Amino acid sequence: MNQYKRPESVLVVVYTVCAQVLLLQRQHPQNFWQSVTGSMHWDESNPLLTAQRELKEETCLNADGLSDCQCFHEFLIQPPWRCRYAPDVTVNREHVFKLRLSHPVPITLNPQEHCAFVWLPQAEAAQRTASWTNRDAILTCVPE
Questions:
Q1: What pLDDT, in 10s, does the model give residues 94-105?
Q2: Which CATH number fits the domain 8-141, given the four candidates 3.40.50.1820, 3.30.1600.10, 3.50.50.60, 3.90.79.10?
């Protein structure tokens, strides 16, 4: 088993028909808001299955209706997370997915990863997220 994280991940934008977007606050670093995210495991070959797993682990939401946005981002791995990757790895590939719900629902967080959640209008959610890739996904994948 590889001791380092795989530099390939998923981002799942969860939103409602009225363009309310779910954001999760990470335990660390402080005040870091994001959509559902997670690294692909080394034995996972399908990003859709990773997105389903991460959605369940982080929110307890069912993945019915989860769809592939048919895009990905590549970004430099930031210093707080560099130690999780092999020393020669500097870039992560992030596959983008979306899940539309009829209305905001209560979320059951994984307390090891997140400490709060909020449903926000699309523009406000895009502004609050800490990641440019997350901001881009919210603005391009969520219909207004």
A1: 999 999 999 999
A2: 3.90.79.10
